[in-house]
Write a structure and sequence with these properties.
By secondary structure, this protein is α/β, with parallel strands linked by helices. The chain has 5 helices and 7 strands.
């Protein structure tokens, strides 16, 4: 079986590749010749995941799955949420995003947050979605060199390390994307 993962984010591909069984060949957007920005114009994380999967199916004809992830911070009315990648502007810079978030939390004692990933699967003409959530807290400072995005400032509940300080195996086991992809893999096991 081969399936397209509708992303060119090499970090996401690496994470997902480590979870997907070897009998499923994972193709990136680059592998299918898709070099344009796939639209993400919906108002929800789930809506963006569905939009991306439907775009690839419609324009390229491949069965595929797409994900969208957002960091939701309680004391910021669940911001940055659907705007997580471009929180500090269209340049989509992770350090700018983290700096803005940490600045917005300076006066806020509540640092509870959660990462949410929704995976939308377009397979055999049907659409399925899978959701993974990881609850935690925003740290006062960046910690760790691994991972990407907000990983250096997100510490999952029950752990004393940020995602950026964890190895990929642990992050995938407890993390939002890993949980959603594990549900996807279980579903694909029926085919």
């Amino acid at each position: 079986m081969q399936i397209v993962f509708a992303t060119n984010n090499l970090n996401k591909i690496k994470e997902v590749q480590s979870i997907i069984p070897t009998h499923i060949k994972l193709l990136s957007l680059k592998d299918i010749g898709c070099f344009e920005d796939v639209p993400e114009t919906q108002s929800t994380i789930k809506g963006n995941a569905i939009q991306k999967a439907e775009y690839v199916k419609k324009h390229y004809g491949y069965d595929c799955f797409a994900d969208d992830t957002g960091l939701e911070v309680e004391s910021l009315n669940n911001e940055p949420g659907v705007f997580s990648a471009r929180y500090a502007g269209p340049q989509r810079d992770a350090n700018d995003n983290m700096d803005l978030l940490l600045n917005n939390l300076i006066e806020k004692p509540n640092r509870n947050a959660q990462f949410k990933t929704v995976v939308a699967l377009h397979l055999n003409g049907n659409l399925e979605t899978f959701t993974g959530i990881c609850k935690g807290k925003i740290t006062p400072n960046k910690q760790g060199e691994k991972g990407f995005g907000y990983d250096p400032i997100f510490m999952p509940d029950g752990y004393t390390k940020t995602f950026a300080e964890m190895d990929l195996i642990l992050k995938n086991k407890i993390g939002h994307r890993g949980k959603a992809i594990t549900q996807l893999v279980a579903f694909l096991g029926n085919f």
